[in-house]
Design a protein that fits this description.
The chain is α+β, with helices and mostly antiparallel strands. The chain has nine helices and 27 strands. A hairpin with a 2-residue loop joins strand 21 and strand 22. Helix 2 (44-51) crosses helix 3 (55-61). The protein is elongated, with a radius of gyration of 25 Å. It starts with 7 loop residues before the first helix and ends in a 7-residue tail after the last helix. Residues 1-26 have low confidence and may be disordered. The structure holds zinc ion. Zinc ion binds at residues 285, 302, 304, 306, 383.
């Protein structure tokens, strides 16, 4: 019975019941419609093998008549009941096309073509992964030389740090891109981790995760971002604050940009990150808050997290790292910046006292300064920011997701106490 023959009523009925969302796990035949949230490498063909249905049926059901367009990572798709027993052997992408893959798998080229919905065995299949019936693993199509690939969150929000981790079969990791921006990738033996950041103005909706394979071919899968929830702040600048020196602001930013773009190719941290302040009064401004100055447009957002606190309250290193800046700046006042490795930096500003030195190795909980209201600030508070590859990320989300430990796991290192 083809899924297309199912009466519409039955489809609607199963919709009303609410589809089951199934996660990764061993494949099994299904007699119901199920929902599936797409993970990296789950192309239409891989999903077809996972559920024992045709790729075409999946594409039609999910409004994807274009065969080139893969399902978006994070999207929830509807899967009809199985037509055949799912699960497959994954054959590596055939450099020599179907003929060579068939010879290597000791099967007929016709059987391979039929199983993979290729119209004719002599049609080029490029670097597509091929599948054969049997086996027990979930089918995925990954970039060349990558044997496992995970994203820290399959449906990220703009402004959140995004982690990548996986395993390599070849000594060279592919280059990964989010849209056209390179993702920071660090390899350690046959493991690799990656980190990227979008900023809080990144548009929700469909974006693209690409991998440029060492052989020059491209692996690409859409990645879907969910809308963020942002607060809006109207700020009135008067007197001294309104007469700020734009040239000094730009010069300070350029200097810090140069600092933040330096990459330490290993993590300094060995446990989860903690909050950089214990005794604060209130969280006064979140990351990403849209800001309008003197009634103007909401053209900027808050790049860090503000904690109001009494002057002199200790400011603590949230994780191990190396201090790369410790001085008084024009905009940020008393400032400390810590390099945590893998392109991750954290900063502490408006400090009344800077209690650390450039080059100093800090451990989590070490006092690096005291809360103050130096620089362009209107009251005692700590402005804490976190950057990845020079782009601000939501530090509270970084803590909540425990990306630090997730990345260490991908790196093959234990995640100890903070
Ligand atoms: Zn702030």
């Amino acid at each position: 019975v083809s899924w297309r023959a199912l009466p519409l009523k039955l489809v609607l009925f199963s919709l009303l019941l609410g589809p089951r969302v199934v996660g990764p796990g061993p494949a099994a035949m299904t007699t119901d419609w199920v929902s599936h949230q797409v993970e990296p490498g789950e192309t239409w063909y891989a999903l077809a093998w996972r559920y024992g249905v045709s790729a075409h049926a999946l594409q039609l059901e999910n409004g994807h008549p274009n065969r080139q367009q893969q399902p978006a990572i994070g999207a929830v798709i509807r899967v009809p009941p199985s037509e055949r027993w799912p699960a497959a052997y994954t054959l590596s992408p055939p450099g020599g096309g179907l003929l060579r893959a068939a010879a290597e798998a000791r099967t007929s080229v016709w059987r391979l073509a039929l199983a993979n919905e290729v119209a004719h065995p002599f049609r080029p299949v490029h670097s597509r992964t091929l599948f054969l019936p049997g086996g027990s693993e979930g089918a995925v199509e990954l970039p060349a030389g990558v044997t496992a690939l995970e994203l820290s969150q399959s449906w990220p929000t703009p402004g959140q740090a995004i982690g990548l981790r996986g395993r390599l079969a070849s000594p060279v990791a592919p280059q990964f891109f989010l849209d056209d921006r390179a993702i920071l990738v660090f390899a350690s033996g046959d493991r690799f981790v990656g980190l990227t950041a979008t900023g809080a103005f990144y548009a929700p909706g469909l974006h693209r995760l690409d991998a440029l394979n060492p052989d020059g071919t491209l692996w690409s899968q859409p990645l879907s971002f969910q809308p963020g929830e942002w607060t809006f702040q109207q700020i009135t600048l008067t007197g001294e604050a309104a007469a700020i020196d734009q040239a000094s602001i730009i010069a300070e930013r350029e200097r810090l940009d140069a600092l933040w773009s330096l990459l330490t190719p290993e993590p300094y941290w060995s446990g989860p990150f903690t909050l950089p302040i214990e005794n604060y009064l209130e969280l006064t401004s979140e990351y990403g808050a849209r800001r309008s100055y003197n009634g103007g447009p909401y053209r900027t957002y808050h790049e860090g997290v503000d904690f109001s606190a009494y002057g002199g309250t200790p400011v603590l290193a949230p994780a191990a790292g190396v201090v790369v800046l410790a001085e008084r700046l024009y905009v940020r006042g008393g400032a400390v910046i810590i390099d945590h490795g893998l392109g991750v930096y954290s900063g502490y500003y408006h400090l009344s006292a800077v209690e650390s030195e450039v080059g100093q190795q800090v451990m989590p909980g070490d006092v690096v300064g005291g809360v103050g209201t130096t620089g362009l600030s209107t009251g005692n508070h700590l402005h804490w920011d976190m950057l990845i590859g020079g782009t601000w990320v939501d530090g509270l989300a970084w803590l909540e997701q425990d990306l630090a430990c997730w990345l260490l796991e991908g790196w093959g290192a234990p995640c100890g106490a903070p």
